[in-house]
Amino acid sequence: SLKAIATPTRTKEILAKYGFSFKKSLGQNFIIDVNVLKNIIETAEIDQQTGVMEIGPGMGALTEQLALYSNHVVAFEIDQRLTPILEETLNPYQNISIVYQDVLQADVANIIATHFSPEQDVKVVANLPYYVTTPILMRLLMDRLPISSITVMIQKEVADRMAARPNTKSYGSLSIAVQYYTEAKVALNVPKTVFMPQPNVDSAVLHLQIRTTPLVKVNDESFFFDLVQASFAQRRKTLRNNLSRHFSEQYTKEELENKMLQAGIDGTRRGESLSIQEFANLANVFV
Ligand code: SAM
Predict the structure, then answer these.
(1) Which of 131, 173, 174, 281 has CA 20 to 30 A from 86's CA?
(2) Which of 24, 59, 79, 89 to mutate to test the pocket of ligand 1 (most atoms within 8 A of CB)?
(3) Could you tell me the pTM of the whole model?
């Protein structure tokens, strides 16, 4: 039986053998606890038929567990210094492909088409580099890739914002952007102690089930997201105030009052009280 990569001893051994130094700028916090990895995999609901796309395999801690429980793993890694390490640690597994590319630059759709069969269920599972969490997730969602879910370890505060409901402190334009495309839930909180080196923020596992059609019907997506952003520009201000500031060049106050009236939304409300459906109704009155 093989000793898992995700243990403090094995991780330290590998670090020493290759003289590897963590790059904070690449969000390199590696997992040293197999139970956390099993919890992530359970949340992702993968089986021996599932195709898995990972972002940032690091030393292969999660990659190894994914290889054991899925059909095939394709992992994007930006740091070429990890090449000899991954060649050694993942050597026992035949169902892993590592792509040494920045996932934000890669042709992800093409790589999915190359490595998985068209009928195969493909899921994203990763312990993301925290400095680029939002750009990575938004890109995966906006590119409308053929993936059914995304299960990622990210900074807890960001996970809470992505899954937040109206009338909570965490609810904002990020919640709406993510929930427009997915059903979002925070599956579990993870302590700092399972990482090496320990990050200075708390972590959580976020599960995003991708919707077959967006949550709400909007006539113009970019206008909808622009309106949402504007509505949260100053959280303490009313919707009326935020919108008249943002649209001062295009609409008079009276015109804006009229739009809100048409959408059945009281201008004295704050953005944080509007549901995603209400934002859609309001946006659709404009365009
Ligand atoms: N999966 C490993 C684990 O759980 O132990 C490592 C996770 S570590 C938080 C993030 C990994 O993402 C690092 O290996 C880092 O080099 C890699 N990374 C950072 N930015 C990346 C990018 N833009 N594209 C692909 N990989 C990236």
Answers:
(1) 131
(2) 79
(3) 0.97
Could you tell me if residue 147 is left (phi over 0), alpha (psi between -120 and 50 degrees) or otherwise beta?
A: beta
pLDDT tens digits along 34-75: 999 999 999 999 999 999 999 999 999 999 999 999 999 999
Pocket of ligand 1 (CB under 6 A): 26-31, 55-58, 61-62, 76-79, 102-104, 127, 129, 132
Q: Find the helix or strand (DSSP H, E) in which 157 lies.
A: helix 156-162
Cα of 130 from ligand 1 centre, angstroms: 9
3 pLDDT above the threshold of 90: no
* Rounded (10°) CA dihedral 182, 183, 188, 194: -10
Calculate mean pLDDT across residues 185-189: 98
Output the average pLDDT for the chain: 97
Please state at what angle helix 173-181 crosses helix 133-142, rounded to 10 degrees. Answer: 40
